[in-house]
Design a protein that fits this description.
There is one protein chain. The chain is of the alpha+beta class. The chain has 4 helices and 7 strands, in the order H-H-E-E-E-H-E-E-E-E-H. Strands 1, 2, 3, 4, 5, 6 and 7 form a 7-stranded antiparallel sheet that branches. The radius of gyration is 15 Å and the shape is globular.
Length: 153
């Protein structure tokens, strides 16, 4: 019984540390910076090489970190990353976020195995959200299992 309770508690914690896929829950999770307690960050904000604004800082989930270290591709379900978007410079607080979360073991040709989200102001009004979003997969399909960032924890 104790072992079962430990396993269930561990699984609940793992799910709680992943970005939620619902709009309100995700925005709350991002504002609370839940990812900062378990994800591995890039050293600092840096100039963006993509359409995510002038400066970004990416945080990698434990599953994605392990997959990258082990050379796994495609990544496992539960791999995730959060990209903080700095529109006012690298020393200002982030004002938006881009999120990727692997929700299926296979990514699929259109990226439907990935949940994507992006908001440039942290609000529900400006939130793009969904699986295999064309606005996201259009660029990300050229990455390793849809991951473009060159940083490796």
């Amino acid at each position: 019984m104790v072992i079962l309770g430990t396993i269930l508690a561990s699984n609940a914690h793992a799910v709680a540390t992943l970005p939620p896929t619902g709009k309100q829950a995700l925005l709350g999770w991002l504002r609370a910076r839940v990812y900062a307690s378990t994800f591995i960050p890039e050293p600092a904000p840096h100039p963006s090489a993509s359409a995510h604004g002038p400066y970004v800082r990416t945080w990698y989930s434990p599953v994605l970190t392990e997959d990258l270290r082990m050379g796994r591709s495609p990544f496992r379900k539960g791999a995730a990353m959060v990209k903080e978007l700095y529109l006012e410079g690298p020393n200002a607080p982030p004002v938006g976020y881009a999120v990727m979360r692997k929700v299926r073991s296979r990514s699929g040709p259109t990226g439907r195995g990935w949940f994507f989200s992006e908001t440039f102001d942290g609000t529900n009004d400006a939130l793009r959200i969904g699986r295999g979003l064309p606005v996201c997969t259009g660029c990300h399909r050229s990455g390793v299992d849809y991951l473009l960032s060159p940083f490796r924890p």
